[in-house]
Amino acid sequence: MKNAIVIGASSGIGKALVELLLKKGWKVGITGRRLPLLEELKATAPDRVHCHYQDIQDVTASPKSIAQLWSVFEKIDLVIVSSGMAHLNSSLKWELEEESIQTNVVGTARVYQYVYEQFKVQGYGHLVGISSIASIRGNRHSPSYGASKAFQANYLEALRCMSKKHKHNIDITDIQPGFVDTAMAKGDGLFWVAAVDKAARQILHAIEQKKRKVYVSRRWGGIAFLLKRLPAWLYERI
Ligand SMILES: NC(=O)c1ccc[n+]([C@@H]2O[C@H](COP(=O)([O-])OP(=O)(O)OC[C@H]3O[C@@H](n4cnc5c(N)ncnc54)[C@H](OP(=O)(O)O)[C@@H]3O)[C@@H](O)[C@H]2O)c1
Questions:
Q1: How does residue 189 score in pLDDT terms, banded at 50, 70 and 90?
Q2: Which atom of ligand 1 is closest in space to residue 55's alpha carbon?
Q3: CATH (domain of 166)
Q4: How many domains does the chain contain in total?
Q5: How much distance in Å is there from the Cα of 167 to the middle of ligand 1?
């Protein structure tokens, strides 16, 4: 039986991934700030789920939450970091920018760094980050969100290079979803919104294949292709 930790498992993609892992017989440690939601999820398979409060913005306490779960399971095969924060903020309110940056940049980097170090000590592991298609270009509706996702994608690639170069035996997967039907998918004009179960199935498949990077749902790969090539003068007018 394999063991995973899913960070940000109280709702949305993280929760759906936990449900799939449980169906496949995994033991799972789950974290987030909304403990009652985590307890509900634990109640679906009490003997195979352990939950722990974790606020990734608190970079001192956050690794301790992971360490606590690690000690319960002893060996961890997979860590999925699904926690994230998004605000529509074209008026550039600093409080909103700051919350996204503290969560998606500072808090997430601390989690990636800590998990990578733990896997190094353990001798193996698979770290999965969920960045976004929003990592590809700046987004005038949510500047810090897009930029923070670019940070995550870049950081994950750096860890992958580090693992290969130094033979750390740590696999790194970057999941780049388009729109997925969760509380986070905000705003008008959303399209190709994937059902959360479908997105989770595609994400788990990519994890099982140990992919480096994958777009979810798959057709967002076409949007990624276009976004990377769209000239700035045209992108600025959209
Ligand atoms: N939905 C989309 O369209 C979409 C598209 C691209 C990428 N993504 C990415 O997918 C990931 C999952 O998002 P989702 O769509 O599933 O949205 P969601 O339902 O809002 O889930 C976000 C998760 O992050 C956790 N979280 C937020 N702040 C946290 C903190 N400070 N400490 C610990 N956990 C925290 C939340 O748990 P608590 O509130 O309980 O702490 C929740 O479990 C995010 O990284 C998001 O950026 C989503």
A1: confident
A2: 32
A3: 3.40.50.720
A4: 1
A5: 31
Buried/exposed code over 215-225 (b: 16+ C-beta within 10 A; e: otherwise): bbbeebeeebe
- Whether ligand 1 lies within 6 angstroms of the CB of 59 is answered as no
Backbone φ and ψ of 231, nearest 5°: -65, 150
Place 22 in a pLDDT band, splitting at 50, 70 and 90.
Answer: very high
The pTM for the full model equals 0.98
Range of the domain at 154: 3-235
Query: What is the mean predicted confidence (pLDDT) over 177-195?
Result: 90
Q: Which atom of ligand 1 is nearest to the CA of 102?
A: 31
Torsion of CA 155, 169, 59, 100, to 10 degrees: 30
Q: Which of 51, 82, 173, 213 to mutate to test the pocket of ligand 1 (most atoms within 8 A of CB)?
A: 82
